[in-house]
Automatic annotation (TrEMBL):
Residues 87-212 form the GST C-terminal domain. PANTHER family: GLUTATHIONE S-TRANSFERASE OMEGA, PTHR43968. Keywords: Oxidoreductase, Transferase. It catalyses: methylarsonate + 2 glutathione + H(+) = methylarsonous acid + glutathione disulfide + H2O; L-dehydroascorbate + 2 glutathione = glutathione disulfide + L-ascorbate; RX + glutathione = an S-substituted glutathione + a halide anion + H(+). PROSITE patterns: GST_CTER, GST_NTER. One of its GO terms (biological process) is glutathione metabolic process. Belongs to the GST superfamily. Omega family. GO terms for cellular component: cytoplasm. Residues 2-81 form the GST N-terminal domain. Exhibits glutathione-dependent thiol transferase activity. Has high dehydroascorbate reductase activity and may contribute to the recycling of ascorbic acid. Participates in the biotransformation of inorganic arsenic and reduces monomethylarsonic acid (MMA). Gene3D superfamilies: 1.20.1050.10, Glutaredoxin. It holds the Pfam family GST_N_2. This is Glutathione S-transferase omega.
Length: 235
């Protein structure tokens, strides 16, 4: 297989999903840092949305959207470790719960961060905790990962965001997942995912993550966020 490029951004949880997928599969790729706030012609040429991740193939062909990238990486090698199960029903379950993450967990993550009123923040916290409780209850009892012993797509979809619970949501909004039986499996899941071999190399310094997300939390102009990313990247 010819080497492909992964257009990524060190601070972006969506891009981190594809980065983890490549490392989990053990496939060769070239990491290319891109600041999606700059919308460079090079980035627009491979993704008209100007976002990362983007997998760039020979001849300039490209694949984008994080969940699509994960599935594409998995299908590049049918013989090795599988990110999605082969069974049609089990694959459907993975896609369903990946969609649950995108629709029920990721939106309140950003909504809580953007909310400036304490009352609104608290309301969003409760909603997010309910969705995390649903996710926790669905984790396979054999654990520690979502589908059991194997790290897979659902884990990749949520892990980049759970890594930011501490340096972002806890730091700015005092959000924590209670250490109760209701979230017992979720805490075990986080411990396993955050120390998984294909995840660890993708983890950015907490201080840098906090510094970047401050601009979201304090509702600063997008141009300030773009400048901050460039400045913090050089630290």
């Amino acid at each position: 297989m010819s080497k492909v490029k992964l257009y990524c951004a060190w601070f972006c949880p969506f891009a981190q999903r594809a980065w983890i997928a490549f490392l989990e599969k053990g496939l060769p790729f070239e990491y290319v840092e891109n600041n999606p706030y700059e919308k460079t012609p090079e980035l627009i040429a491979v993704n008209p949305n100007g976002l990362v991740p983007v997998i760039v193939l020979e001849g300039g062909r490209s694949v984008f959207e994080s969940s699509v990238c994960i599935e594409y990486v998995d299908e590049l090698d049918q013989e090795g470790k599988q990110i999605l199960p082969r069974d049609p029903y089990e694959r459907a379950q993975v896609r369903m719960w990946s969609e649950f993450i995108n629709k029920k967990i990721i939106p309140p993550f950003y909504q809580m961060l953007a909310a400036q009123e304490k009352e609104k923040q608290e309301k969003i916290k409760l909603a997010l905790l309910e969705h995390l409780a649903t996710f926790s209850a669905t984790i396979d009892d054999s654990g520690p990962f979502f589908s059991g012993k194997s790290f897979g797509m659902v884990d990749m979809m949520l892990c980049p965001f759970s890594l930011r619970f501490g340096p972002v949501l806890k730091h700015f909004r005092d959000f924590e997942v209670p250490n109760t039986d209701r979230y017992r499996k979720f805490h075990k899941w986080m411990d396993a995912c955050h120390t998984h071999p294909s995840v660890v190399p993708t983890i950015a310094d907490d201080r840098k993550i906090t510094a970047v997300y401050r601009y979201y939390a304090e509702n600063m102009p997008m141009s300030d966020t773009a400048d901050a990313v460039k400045r913090i990247s050089g630290l």
